[in-house]
Amino acid sequence: MTEKHQQERMAAAGGITLALLAFAGFPLGDAVIKSMAGDWPAQAVAALRFSIGALALGIILLFREGRQGFSVNRPWLHMARGFSIFVGTITFFSAIYIMPLADAVAISFVNPILTALFSGWFLKEKMQPRTWIATIVAFCGVLIMLRPNVAAFGWVAILPLISAIAMAAMLILNRMVSSQRSVFAAQFYSAFWAATFLVIATVIGHWLVPVMAVPSVPDWDVILRCALVALTATGCHFLLFMATMRTTAAAIAPIVYIQLLVATAISVFVFGDPIDRTSMMGGLLIIFSGLLLWRSERKAAPVTAA
Known about the structure:
By secondary structure, the chain is mainly alpha-helical. Helix content is 76%, strand content 0%. It has helices spanning 3-34, 42-65, 75-98, 101-108, 111-122, 129-153, 159-176, 183-208, 220-244, 249-252, 258-269, 277-300.
């Protein structure tokens, strides 16, 4: 083995390790959000979390690139990204408030399948037969997981599926702004518009929807936990970005399913949520469909000469 190949293998191993840490960290933030159920309304927690994130990103952007860093092309696309994050966040936060964390995370894993479908519909990318098979299998898994949850929680259990649809739309919009000059500017504007929509929804909900009423100013521990979620999410995204600099997206993609294992462990051992066999079967189908899609995309990827 040449020295170059050895360095490439070490870089790839480092990238996979970073991705493992990133994906394992995301459910920890979800657990912190779930711990605030009953302390403050979900939409208010989401608004505070993204406001903190937008403020931090804005300060970083200002120091790195100055005022010019805030100039972006096609601002309406960034607004649409923020709206997608708003819908995805408020529905997912509401879901983990009322249902087991593991179930909500597992249902949200239909996101890669939906992204593949949306790519074919909106970006005119060719759909492979395996993509359709993976889609059908994934939706079967979602339906299996939703059956007991709909019976227990009502149709509100579909919230994580709505969140997955919204986040898939956000990924498509991300690809449409992939030529953005500044990555920090793109991240700032998505967080800024998400925070804006969430604050508006919180104000409207407080006055018009009794269940969304904000009882009082949040306690210091709520603010601290929101800041912690903003910090951990940003840190995980940074680790993921560093991972993609060391290895391929195809190598990183399957690691996403570590989230389900971590979320299940937190759900059972921290929150005491029972995990029944039906839900486990549905979750395994979703994982299988995602791995099938990853394998299909990996085979379809062009091979570069060494």
